[in-house]
Amino acid sequence: MNRRRVPLRPALLITGGSGFVGRAMIHELLADEPLLDASLIRIFDLHEPAEPPADTRVQFVRGDVRDPTALADAMTGIDAVFHLASMVDWGTHKPSTVYDVNVGGVAKALEAARSAGVSVFVYTSSLDAVITGRPLRDVDESLPYPRVAPNAYCGSKAEAEKAVAAADDAARPFRTVNLRPASVWGEADPYHISALVNLARKGPYVRIGDGSAVQQHIYAGNLAHGHLAACREMLEAVDEGREPRCAGRSYFLTDAPPINFFRFFDEVVRGSGFEIRPENLWIPRPLMLGAGIVAESLAWLLRPLVHWNPKVSRFAVNYTCSDFTFTSAAARRDFGFAPKYDQQTAFARTTSWFRDRGPAAVPPIPAEPLLAG
Fold it and tell me: Which pLDDT score, from 0 to 100, does residue 221 have?
């Protein structure tokens, strides 16, 4: 094998680094005694971070993952890439656009990384890559991809995973891994918590289903910690000339046992200081599916004039009303994944962030979330 010596303080590139998970990644990299002591942290995104870090190691490069030239420039001098950039879609974008960003963007990033001599490529995928539209209970990484994806977003994540796994190359070396988080939550969450806080503020606070379905989640800080653990395993393996245990594979990441989506986030909303009214309103799944059809149709009709992401979609309804449970045992075995933050700490940090900032803390979902890392 033609080994490339990996520096003890690697230069890192984070595509989509200004987004929600990107924020957590930067926080972990700048924390005391991080898993990776980076010499350079380069953020590649369409938008600057909302709270730019003062650390001189952090650079911001404006760019789009669909632009090969911008990617090539951003990869210069980089040892490892965290590809967080993705179009988070609820069924309101054209499937071709979703695939262009989530599959085409990954392909361009992989090519740019290989050409630049990058050693490690960590892709932030999603549980959605293997969602079938039916409940999944106690599954592991042996679960195959569905023959037909429920929507373009799920399909794009599956295709991107396949491309990342296929790009793994021991000879160069160019080592890759796919990480599949469950629903991500934490400070500055623009998706789950912000939507529910807005429901609590404006009312009525509506839950979907009957509360019996359970899913799993992961705190953004623990997800970022998992990214660093996988990257470190591969960097050290390349440096030592051995085969990384996680190279070319996909891994589920979660840090908590199953719980109903709304019962979990209700406590976060209350802990953040927002009152829930009414206390116990649950709308049956069939009615909410009808509402999702109406909302998606209206968003499609308005698209030539205004870009609107509806709060309700058929996919969201089906997701919150179905069981999705799995294990992170493989990630623990192969790259030592273990939550850095316990649930009590994650809860306290998240609720404090929203409570201290009040209603203004609710971050807007980007109108064009091309790089929503």
Answer: 98
Q: What is the per-residue pLDDT across 358-367, written as a single tens digit (0 to 9) for each? A: 666 666 555 4
Query: Which of the 8 DSSP states describes residue 100?
Result: I
Side-chain half-sphere of 4: how many Cα atoms within 13 Å? 20
What single DSSP character describes residue 104? I
199 close to 164: Cβ distance less than 8 angstroms: no
What is the pairing mode between strands 11-15 and 40-45?
parallel
Quote the Cα angle for 317-319-320, to 5°: 70
Determine the Cα–Cα distance for residues 327 and 148; give it in Å rounded to an integer: 24
Task: Report which DSSP code applies to 303.
Answer: T
Q: How many residues does the chain have?
A: 373
User: How much is the pLDDT for 362?
Assistant: 62
Q: Collect all residues with Cβ–Cβ distance below 8 Å to 104 and sequence separation of at least 6.
A: 66
pTM exceeds 0.90:
yes
Whether 124 and 179 have beta carbons less than 8 Å apart is answered as yes
* Percent helix, percent strand, percent coil in the chain, to nearest 5: 40, 15, 45
Superfamily of domain 11-185+217-255+325-346: NAD(P)-binding Rossmann-like Domain (3.40.50.720)
Q: Return d(Cα 261, Cα 258) in angstroms, integer.
A: 9
Tell me which residue of 178, 16, 13 sits closest to 79, measured CA to CA: 13
How far, in Å, are 10, 148, 346, 347 from residue 32 at the CA level?
17, 45, 18, 21
- Please give the Cα distance from 106 to 109 (Å, whole number): 5
**37-62 confidence digits (pLDDT tens):** 999 999 999 999 988 899 999 999 99
H helix intervals, the chain:
20-29, 68-75, 95-99, 105-116, 152-167, 192-202, 220-240, 261-271, 285-302, 314-320, 329-335, 343-357
Q: In the chain, where are the structural domains located?
A: 11-185+217-255+325-346
Burial pattern 157-192, b for ≥16 Cβ within 10 A else e, equals bbbbbbbbbebbeeebbbbbbbbbbbbbbbbbbbbb
Output the pLDDT for position 315: 80
- Taking the C-alpha atoms of residue 136 and residue 145, their distance in angstroms, rounded to an integer, is 12
